[in-house]
Amino acid sequence: AQFKMYFDPFLKPDMGKKSKYKTSVKKKTLNPEFNEEFSYDVSLDHLAKKTLEISVWDYDLGMSNDFIGGVELGINASGQRLKHWFECLKNKGKKVEYWHTLTQQGAPTTDKPD
In 5-84, where do the E strands start and end? Predict the structure, then answer.
């Protein structure tokens, strides 16, 4: 990976290729704000059994994107991530905002360029 003093981050709400959703790239920043929304058509019964994986990537033009970190929300999460998930299920249609620390757990290290 090349050394930079900044990142060009973007978020993917699915660490695999199951979803084509991703945010726009926020160029040359260490403190990005995305303020973007994704919606999925899922019943509440099915949603309770799902896991939301959000990964943060450093965009590199023409090269593999570098994984920065990620977070998983769902029934198999623990601590604040599990609490956040239950709050989302309990408050259908409302925004429930929490801050989470990114982890390296279970995520790929690179992503092919789009």
Answer: 9-12, 51-58, 65-74
Q: Would 63 be classed as within a structural domain?
A: yes
Total-model pTM: 0.73
Q: What is the pLDDT of residues 74-83, one digit of tens each?
A: 999 999 999 9
Number of domains composing the chain: 1
**Nearest to 51, CA basis, from 72, 21, 32:** 72
**CATH code of 77's domain:** 2.60.40.150
Q: Which residue has the higher pLDDT, 44 or 111?
A: 44
Q: Which domain holds residue 16?
A: 9-32+42-111
